[in-house]
Write a structure and sequence with these properties.
Blueprint lengths: L1 H35 L3 E4 L2 E4 H24 L4 H20 L3 H23 L4 H6 L7 H28 L2 H22 L1 H7 L6
Helix pairs in contact: 1-2, 1-7, 2-3, 3-4, 4-6, 6-7, 6-8
């Protein structure tokens, strides 16, 4: 019994650490931006906005957290890898060129990329989602096919939403949308598909 309790506590601690590593960098970006959004920071003779400084801080924090996730779980998802690469490239361009537009367009590129991959998987009847998520979400083949189409449309919708927000709203509004709006939309999507998970889910013993 004590061993079982220790295992449960260990899993709980690992889960909390995993969540911190996944969402911590975004929260760091959010806090730094709020602290510096109305200020101009001079670095090596060059003036930068609070947004650019927050981006500069975000990049190494994300690199370290991704390495921490890899050490903790022993693997990284394709989305985590793609996000890291695109953050380094587009975040780096924003800092180098002192232009926040590169970093703002980064989510659009990520979502379009995954919408395209999942759209191709649906048309080609490839169950790529199953290969990635089956351990956490066991479902029958038809369930994966439906989820693939829905997620492709969801990512396409998120890409459009990001473009609308960053092009038509203030920088502060985009940061709030990026930090809280996008995760909330993903959560709503998952809750909206609870019926699908229930209808096509299978027991692990099967």
């Amino acid at each position: 019994m004590p061993d079982k309790r220790r295992d449960e506590m260990s899993k709980t601690s690992s889960g909390k650490l995993k969540a911190l590593l996944e969402y911590g960098p975004l929260l760091v970006f959010f806090v730094v931006f709020l602290l510096l959004r109305d200020r101009t920071v001079s670095i090596m003779g060059q003036d930068y906005s609070g947004f650019i400084v927050a981006t500069l801080v975000f990049i190494p924090v994300l690199v370290l957290s991704t390495l921490g996730l890899w050490r903790l779980t022993g693997r990284l998802s394709p989305m985590q890898i793609a996000t890291l690469v695109l953050v380094i490239v587009f975040g780096g361009l924003s800092v180098w060129l002192n232009d926040p537009r590169f970093f703002k367009i980064k989510p659009t590129i990520i979502y379009v990329l995954f919408a395209g991959l999942l759209g191709f998987a649906y048309l080609a009847d490839k169950h790529w989602l199953e290969a990635v998520l089956s351990e956490a979400l066991p479902m029958r083949a038809e369930g994966w096919r439906k989820l693939t189409l829905r997620m492709a449309l969801m990512f396409l919708g998120l890409a459009i939403a990001n473009e609308i927000v960053w092009r038509t709203m203030s920088e502060t509004n985009w940061v709030y949308f990026k930090t809280f709006g996008l995760p909330l939309l993903l959560f709503v999507f998952l809750m909206g598909n609870a019926g699908l998970f229930k209808a096509y889910g299978i027991e692990r013993d099967e």
